[in-house]
Amino acid sequence: MSKFSTAAKRLLVGRPFRSDRLAHTLLPKRIALPVFASDAMSSVAYAPEEIFLMLSVAGLSAYAFAPWIGVVVVLVMLTVVASYRQNVRAYPSGGGDYEVATVNLGKQAGLTVASALLVDYVLTVAVSIASAAANIGSAIPFVATHKVEFSVVAIIVLTAINLRGIRESGAAFAVPTYAFMAGIMLMIAFGLFRGLVLGDDMPAESANLQINAEHGDLAGLALVFLVLRAFSSGCAALTGVEAISNGVPAFRKPKSKNAATTLLLMGVIAVVMLMGLIVLAQLTGVRIAEDPATQLVNAPPGYEQKTMVAQVAEAVFSGFPAGFFFITAVTALILVLAANTAFNGFPVLGSILAQDRYLPRQLHTRGDRLAFSNGIVGLAGFAVVLVIAFDAEVTRLIQLYIVGVFVSFTMSQTGMIRHWNRHLATETDPAERRRMRRSQAINAFGLAMTGSVLVVVLITKFLLGAWIAIAAMAVIYLLMTGIRKHYDRVADELARAESESSFVLPSRIHTIVLVSKLHLPTRRALAYARATRPDVLEAITVNVDDVDTKRLVAEWDKENFSVPLKVVESPYREITKPVLEYVRRVRSDNPRDVVTVFIPEYVVGRWWEQVLHNQSALRLKGRLLFQPGVMVTSVPWQLESSEKVAERDLVAPGAIRRGLTGKDPMKDARK
Amino acid sequence: MSKFSTAAKRLLVGRPFRSDRLAHTLLPKRIALPVFASDAMSSVAYAPEEIFLMLSVAGLSAYAFAPWIGVVVVLVMLTVVASYRQNVRAYPSGGGDYEVATVNLGKQAGLTVASALLVDYVLTVAVSIASAAANIGSAIPFVATHKVEFSVVAIIVLTAINLRGIRESGAAFAVPTYAFMAGIMLMIAFGLFRGLVLGDDMPAESANLQINAEHGDLAGLALVFLVLRAFSSGCAALTGVEAISNGVPAFRKPKSKNAATTLLLMGVIAVVMLMGLIVLAQLTGVRIAEDPATQLVNAPPGYEQKTMVAQVAEAVFSGFPAGFFFITAVTALILVLAANTAFNGFPVLGSILAQDRYLPRQLHTRGDRLAFSNGIVGLAGFAVVLVIAFDAEVTRLIQLYIVGVFVSFTMSQTGMIRHWNRHLATETDPAERRRMRRSQAINAFGLAMTGSVLVVVLITKFLLGAWIAIAAMAVIYLLMTGIRKHYDRVADELARAESESSFVLPSRIHTIVLVSKLHLPTRRALAYARATRPDVLEAITVNVDDVDTKRLVAEWDKENFSVPLKVVESPYREITKPVLEYVRRVRSDNPRDVVTVFIPEYVVGRWWEQVLHNQSALRLKGRLLFQPGVMVTSVPWQLESSEKVAERDLVAPGAIRRGLTGKDPMKDARK
């Protein structure tokens, strides 16, 4: 069982990483861009479509708002990029928004950001994969009718890949990201050239469809609300912009400058693609309805609404289907890559939070990637739940998505303003002060922008699903505070104990060897116990069966051990309580003694053997530890079946030994 | 969690038993009869009915065979009783058939009997409860239409009662058993008086129904087969006869004689009830069909077939419904009591088998009844599965039942013949030899009888369900042999090791304290480790984070411990493997040293705290035990939350301390 599971794990997880090897893979800008920007770029695949889709509720006439909404989104995007360029300069450590908020606004703000980010990682996976499914579905109808199944399988595959090992090469990111960028740019250029220069007519397949408003004609406040809602959805384009701020340490030097440049580059490219797609959508007359079945009255029977990107590509590359297939393929690919970003980010954030004791300690050390694996599996699990719960519908998932991103943006910009205030208070150099003031102004503008968007998002999306994301954030927040409180309480307890008493060596060691039979494991335990030269050494046995006990006592007498064997009566034929009672009595008779209980244990190699041995010993061991002033020593007797396990621990996986061959695994840190 | 489960267990399980108290409740015959005979007597409730039911397949005319089948069953019953009277005299230890078979025929025979008995215990519960449900259903139609639910609930209630504590008083058995015996006897006497002396007409409610043969008229071999099958079902009356042979030690002296007398008494009463019921059934014209819906053509719509006992009672006590209700109530009650017998017997047999190493060792000691509880829950679980799988239909369950009983009878009688042969080989006293020869003859006749019945049962029931019981027996047999083989292999391994090497004291103790932080748990571990005065004492820490490690080394230097701190590098940021490597190296440098690894551990009181602490330590501990020549010492640091658990272990349950007040729990078995 354990053998199989280890083998299975190896197969899935691959060889362990060496932390020193990871540390030396610094990224040039041309690789850093695709590695960190795939998330942000991929948003272009669904953000403009969501703008049209939301506007469709008010009928075709509302489509006229689309370019203007696009412009506002671009404005917000550029502001956020400008703001984050300040962030990466001020906080080059890679802590990102969590660090900025914690340092400047305190723990609670940091935790709020962390909760928002954790929720967002899950949503990034769900939204990206659902959108990838929709894009592939535009080319392959079978996928369109099995979106949920496809998405779940995709998440599982991604999980398996990430369990095997992450970030194997920058090329894996570079090729699809540049292909996507090139493809979309080419399509935009070619489309604009055909439409505006050649004056070609490029009707999308939905160009002739009539869109009916869902609730009749909207006007006044209702229309404003709808436009704001479309804008909120369009702001999905901003998701992932913060990724670079978490990745600064991976850049080549000068890290901050390179990161800032990459950020700007990413912003410009994203903005161009976003606006280009909106313009092309209008040129080709794409119709995207929120509810195609009821809104598109003159659609042919069996009409399946394709994604906007797919429809635009089809129209622009009409007569050249390879272009259409290329665009949908690279779009799907970059979306999968974006989902993968979350698989990298989630466990890293988890380990930072664990270091700050908001998550269980063991997440901090990578320990054969076990903790990281748990994070990856957890992330995938929640994403699968979301995909299934929302039928892999991007539009429905996106309602949950944006709130977290903007909570994090807003908190981070607020933190930056404080940051500059703090520095301005001590800085005297006028040039430096001017630079700081300028940075602060940028962050303040960023705050105003992101804060407003957050309010708009909350108002327009709350009932549509944002409340779920907020509730999840609250739960995570409370959980993390609870964990931290526990660790703090433990630290307090230790500090109190430390101040109350200083350690003196225990006066004597009273060693008790637990005996059930006089066989080799017991003899070994006795020999080891004697070798520790305790002040008192005695053996005890629990009398659960008079005949057995008498035989044991007789054997003991015959052997002439110098160790006395005491018989502890057990009127209820149980083992644990009489031993606990006995130990307690020894302790209370000699309070300054330390009691060591030696327990002989069989070590077996198969899980079912464990059922046949040591059950009483294990139970007893667990309970003994609760008694103060007691140590428990396990003296193992390895049965033959255990040998394979011991070998496997040290030799079989190979990787470690191979990794260690040139190097002494121990080095004395002291003289 | 653990607190709750203990509380819940206490609530269900009640106070622990004292083994010395159990030993002194010897039973007079008048109590022993109901305690051990309820199982056998209760069979009367379904055995005669099953005879009629099987015959119904051939139509009403076949009912004429019923009394003759009854006579043969009585003959078998009396033979078996006579045989077992020899058993209880020869084996008064209470080992029963398992002991007789093991001693005389060897381990394999003993195991076969044990497997058969374990399967039978499960079936006793299922059949008895299903029959109880049918009888109660005859008086309360709601129960008849919800037999499965009723049976499952009844088994759960019985399980809870048995987890609380068994055999609280003989009266609990005596009252219902005597009430049942008195009720049935009275009914038989009154019925025969009315029918034969007064010449009353006492038609049962089904007396006017026409029974159609299921497969047309049967003749020749088919009829013989059917009659044999009806006889097999009737032999269900014999189930439980062997119970007294397991209970001999509980009888007052002279144990064997009293047990033999009780056995005879039980046999006579059972036989009288069986034949009485068959005669009454014929007098009242009861019609029992295998498939009432198709066979009883002129039944009124919605006709629900009542049990034979209920129909007879209704007819005999016509105009006096209290009689009918009394009979069905006491019948149901004794059936539940019979099911309870299995709850007593199953764990006892399990503990005997564990003593012989056919089941996990821990079943041997009662340990706060935990092992017994597992047995009881397992028994109930399997019984529930059977009840659900067979719709709580007695007729379908009984096909599985009889084969096990007769395997056990046959094995036991074969064993007894061998037993007498062995004794005859050495015995010279003619009177004694004559007595032995007579006993042997009785057992031989018993063997002939039970062997023939076993063959008949196998032939007539195999396809109807007996194969399931046989398959279950085979699985249990193989499982038990496997467990025994494992224990034997371990014993062999130890013996080989013992002959190869004699123990010498290890030359030196090399003590390693595992350090992750310099806090109180670590200081305590260091102090304790130093108190054991090892030959080499060193501390090691695994470097998973350079910053943390440097801080630790600096603190360590400041404190001026006399213990060196070694830093073990961990290129893969894990803990277990570097430590294993290090320990292995220490061992190979000094093969005669014993390495003790001291691990500081937090002890916490709540299950979720366990998730937040010690995960790495636990993992490491588990792996270290696989390395030869290594001891692992846990040095616990009890957090405050653990105190309640420690208290609970010793004080809270109360029972033990109360039980122990007058008595010192330790007594020195040595001078």
TrEMBL record, chains A, B:
It is found in: Membrane. The keyword Transmembrane applies. Its main location: membrane. One of its GO terms (cellular component) is membrane. Coiled coil: none annotated. It comes from the Bacteria. It is a multi-pass membrane protein. One of its GO terms (molecular function) is transmembrane transporter activity. This is Amino acid transporter. It comes from Actinokineospora auranticolor.
